[in-house]
Amino acid sequence: MPRPPAPKVSPQPVPSGPPIALIGGVAVALVAVVALLVYLATRGDGLDAAGPANALPEGGGVVVAGAAEGVPQVHLYEDFQCPGCGVLEEVSGAAIIAAADSGEIGLTVTMMSFLDGTLGNDSSGRATNAALCADDAGAFAGYHGAVFAAQPEQEGTGWTDEQLVGFAEAAGLQDGELESFRTCMTQGTYTDYVADMQERANREGVSGSPYVFVDGEALADEDMFAMQQDPTAFEQILQANR
Length: 242
Known about the structure:
Elements: H1 19-43, E1 62-65, E2 73-79, H2 83-101, E3 106-112, H3 115-119, H4 123-135, H5 140-149, H6 161-170, H7 175-187, H8 191-203, E4 211-214, E5 217-218, H9 221-227, H10 233-240
Parallel strand pairs: 2-3
Antiparallel strand pairs: 1-3, 2-4, 4-5
Helix pairs in contact: 2-5, 4-5, 4-7, 4-8, 5-6, 6-7
């Protein structure tokens, strides 16, 4: 897979306080990076964590819809805390899911969690683990949409556990399914697979979000911009890339 163009991650604000505040922020970020490296080192180099039923091995993402031969394979890379991803989902998310549901495309989604280190929280990882738990009940797409629909206005605010459970209810989980979801979410059942998705994305050169690949080729910046502006752009882009 070719290395995609420059990341579309929203720029982070530059601290306006004295130099010591900036140094402190850098130190926190370094601690987060070191912690991740130590975690990956202790797990070993292999991407072998178990994911839910629809997850590909080695952190390859969640298959939302398979595809018949000759149908475009779409691979979406997002981070739940990424504002640009939120815009993409608001504008083009319904069109992407509709194309997957109709068999027009095959769709795989890789949820990244790099913004946890940037923002100094664990919200991307927690929300992604919860989305994988929802996939156990066949509700990944609905849960994915519910999280983005409730993306906080202030980047980095994240979601409470109560909100994450509420997204499962919005995605249609009830009774036993909801209880199983709660247990999975609370225990962090898919935390290792969340890390594997991020590591796999890193290895494949996907260093930011959102990105959309069609048959292994990253869409051009102008196509990504169009999909964040025009809800009909995705269908037009598919036609142009066939």
